[in-house]
């Protein structure tokens, strides 16, 4: 097998940590000696052993003289766990092939330098494009903003509700269960004030997933929020936050007294920067159309899960998934790439990322 084929296996292993390892990156590792795989591993859960540790533990003495394939440069600092570079050196590995360097400031090429100083051949760049795609949310958070996943359910004619406002249920049970699976891998789930008032959602993953996401309501006015909602009634089950301009906070006294955290933000950009400081990697934006329109206008939709039901609503007044002013020229539209489709009962899921 080639270096690329071994790295592809390491990348597949890394993906198993999705939802479990954040705010850390997803990492996979494969140990190969004399053409045979003698160890495999991935970072399974935040705070636990890294991928290299798990792979080298499986390899044991067979790691001596081997090549270690790893999707991200090994760490060289003490964090939740000891430096991986120290273990790699002690294990007797003679060559390390990394897909990419880790831009985390405490690593950022220092892990590679440490291995080279120890006489280990270090190569980087095999499978780099795929590795960057895998950890795009992590890389964006290191640049100071959370990764935004937009999700909606719509009819074949692009409606998220009827003209009278009915929206339950557009998609079937299988599609709705897929939504819960997505929720269970997020750090936070966000809706706007309009969706809160119209739907009174729980915004939890049922059954629980790898993570317990915070639930965020974004509002510019706080109007109509001075009553009880399911979010407040279940605040002990999952954190609740309200993102709003500071002058709106007096209207949100019932939220604060119930234990919700008030986030002083005016724009989408400010919100994403604040969530990044809280080490939140993935934000799921579920609507409504006004909020999704704000994220689109800010060019901050990174990934999309669009659930399409074989139904037609029609009607000029029936809302579409993304509102606000939209774009005026086709050349300015958001284009998705890496498109994947999935049949979920009678419904279709279209998934893609910003190009």
Short summary:
The protein is α/β, with parallel strands linked by helices. It is built from twelve helices and 14 strands. The strands form two sheets. It has a nine-stranded mixed β-sheet with strand order 10-9-8-7-11-6-12-14-13, with helices on both faces. Strands 2-1-3-4-5 form a five-stranded mixed β-sheet, with helices on both faces.
What fraction of residues sit in β-strands?
15-25%
List low-pLDDT spans: none
Q: Give the overall average pLDDT.
A: 95
Gyration radius (Cα, Å) is 23 Å
Count the E strands. Answer: 14
Report the structural category: alpha/beta
Order of helices and strands: HEEHEHEHEHHEHEHEHEHEHEHEEE
* Major sheet details: 9 strands, mixed
Shape: elongated
For the biggest β-sheet, the strand order reads 10-9-8-7-11-6-12-14-13
* Percent helix: 25-40%
Helical stretch count?
A: 12
Gap from first CA to last CA: 31 Å
What is the strand and helix layout of this fold?
Elements: H1 3-14, E1 28-33, E2 36-42, H2 51-59, E3 67-70, H3 84-91, E4 95-98, H4 110-117, E5 121-124, H5 128-134, H6 136-142, E6 147-155, H7 173-183, E7 188-192, H8 193-199, E8 214-218, H9 230-233, E9 240-244, H10 253-258, E10 261-264, H11 268-277, E11 282-287, H12 289-297, E12 303-309, E13 336-344, E14 347-354
Parallel strand pairs: 3-4, 4-5, 6-11, 6-12, 7-8, 7-11, 8-9, 9-10
Antiparallel strand pairs: 1-2, 1-3, 12-14, 13-14
């Amino acid at each position: 097998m080639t270096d690329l084929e071994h790295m592809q296996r390491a990348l597949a292993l890394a993906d198993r940590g999705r939802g479990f390892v954040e705010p850390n990156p997803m990492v996979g590792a494969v140990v190969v000696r004399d053409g045979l795989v003698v160890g495999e591993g991935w970072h399974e859960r935040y705070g636990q052993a890294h991928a290299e540790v798990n792979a080298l533990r499986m390899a044991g003495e067979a790691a001596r003289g081997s090549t270690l394939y790893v999707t991200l440069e090994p760490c060289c600092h003490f964090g939740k766990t000891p430096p991986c570079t120290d273990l790699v050196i002690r294990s007797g590995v003679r060559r390390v092939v990394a897909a990419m360097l880790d831009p985390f400031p405490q690593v950022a090429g220092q892990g590679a330098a440490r291995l080279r100083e120890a006489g280990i051949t270090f190569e980087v760049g095999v499978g780099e494009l795929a590795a960057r795609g895998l950890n795009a949310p992590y890389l964006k958070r290191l640049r100071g903003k959370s990764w935004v996943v937009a999700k909606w359910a719509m009819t074949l004619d692009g409606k998220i509700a009827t003209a009278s406002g009915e929206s339950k249920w557009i998609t079937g049970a299988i599609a709705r269960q897929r939504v819960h699976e997505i929720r269970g891998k997020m750090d936070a789930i966000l809706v706007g004030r309009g969706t809160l008032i119209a739907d009174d959602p729980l915004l939890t993953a049922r059954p629980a997933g790898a993570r317990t996401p915070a639930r965020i309501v974004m509002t510019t006015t706080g109007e109509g929020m001075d009553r009880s909602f399911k979010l407040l009634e279940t605040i002990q089950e999952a954190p609740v936050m309200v993102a709003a301009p500071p002058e709106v906070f007096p209207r949100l006294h019932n939220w604060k007294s119930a234990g919700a955290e008030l986030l002083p933000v005016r724009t989408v950009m400010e919100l994403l920067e604040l969530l990044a400081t809280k080490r939140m990697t993935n934000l799921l934006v579920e609507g409504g159309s006004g909020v999704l329109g704000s994220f689109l206008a800010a060019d901050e939709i990174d990934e999309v899960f669009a659930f399409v039901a074989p139904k037609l609503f029609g009607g000029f007044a029936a809302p579409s998934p993304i509102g606000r002013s939209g774009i005026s020229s086709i050349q300015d539209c958001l284009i998705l790439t890496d498109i994947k489709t999935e049949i979920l009962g009678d419904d279709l899921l279209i998934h893609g990322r910003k190009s």
